[in-house]
Write a structure and sequence with these properties.
single chain, mainly beta, 4-stranded antiparallel sheet, 1 helix, globular
């Protein structure tokens, strides 16, 4: 294994975590919304699948600071399918249901502007930024999954991945890329040498090899959460990969609490990660042990989007009916 991965984990064991609900200073009314804090949690962006707008609010005051309105194009303007802040908080990528994607410059929040327009042959289901905010990878499915990496300086595609690749995720430190494959073993790759440092073997359940659906890096780049799912039943297994010692940790209660996972949210500077499920609950995991620490089951609808603020004291969610919910952590 590459010696770069032999860093000492910064996490300490967690035994329990409690939450107290409170109200955010704004409300959403449109169904199936997205919600993402900016990297410093000064703003929070919300987007809607029923129209092509993105609203950016001040987190403290709830004031609407910017509205990203999709420019008129020949294609029918539909709703937002995916959104993502760049790590430096200066750029904002939005993919729409009409298969177009825009990258906005939001460094001056009151004067956002489009810096890149991309027409894809299919709807984007994942966006991944490089840690330096200079590259971003779009994953979309058009009979087969296609991933293209765009350079924001040249505004050109610099790399494409083979059809069996489901998703790529840069580690926050920029050293590694997690590569997920449909029905095959994924890989952790050293980005500078392109050598494989670890193999991510897919889970097997009831005699079937599950598909690697999604993954997300911990903030310190030492752990990876991976979800493997049965494509037919949406029954999923959560597991954690510790790259410091190659340990593969199975999430507890995976067979009963992880139906239809699609959203992750790592608490900054800890081993805690929140996931949604098809059962209208939010699960809180400890990546050190795979322990299910807490379950927030007061949702009336499935959490369509999850995110923590910059210091991990607030977990926010948007449910499928457009309701905003938020909880403060209580230690």
């Amino acid at each position: 294994m590459n010696s770069q991965a032999n860093a000492t984990p910064s996490y300490t064991p967690i035994s329990k975590l409690r939450f107290e609900e409170f109200k955010l200073p704004f409300a959403l009314n449109a169904p199936k919304s997205w919600l993402k804090f900016s990297p410093k949690s000064e703003q929070i962006a919300v987007a809607y699948q029923e129209n092509a707008n993105v609203d950016i609010f001040d987190v403290i005051t709830g004031q609407l600071q910017a509205k990203l309105i999709k420019p008129k194009q020949a294609r029918i303007s539909r709703g937002v399918n995916y959104l993502s802040w760049s790590p430096n908080g200066k750029l904002f990528a939005v993919s729409y249901q009409d298969n177009t994607s825009l990258v906005w410059d939001v460094s001056v929040i009151t004067a956002p502007r489009v810096v890149l327009t991309i027409d894809q042959p299919a709807t984007v289901f994942n966006i991944s930024w490089s840690p330096d905010s200079n590259q971003l990878a779009f994953a979309y499915t058009n009979a087969e999954t296609i991933i293209s990496v765009w350079d924001l300086t040249s505004k050109n595609v610099t790399e494409s991945f083979p059809k069996e690749i489901r998703q790529i995720q840069w580690s926050p430190n920029g050293k590694w890329i997690a590569v997920l494959k449909w029905g095959l073993a994924g890989e952790l790759i050293d980005y500078s040498t392109r050598n494989t440092i670890l193999t991510l073997s897919p889970s097997i359940k009831d005699g079937f090899v599950l598909n690697q659906i999604a993954a997300s890096w911990s903030p310190d780049s030492q752990r990876l959460i991976v979800v493997d799912c049965n494509a037919t039943s949406a029954d999923c297994i959560v597991w954690f990969q510790d790259i410091t010692d190659s340990k593969h940790i199975l999430g507890s209660d995976s067979s009963s609490t992880t139906l239809g996972i699609g959203e992750f949210a790592w608490q900054p500077n800890s081993s805690i990660v929140a996931t949604n499920s098809g059962e209208s609950v939010i699960n809180i995991w400890d990546a050190n042990s795979g322990t299910l620490l807490s379950t927030i089951d007061t949702l009336e609808n499935r959490a369509a989007s999850l995110d923590w603020n910059f210091d991990g004291t607030i977990l926010a969610a948007v449910t499928a009916d457009g309701s905003t919910r938020a909880w403060k952590t209580i230690n």
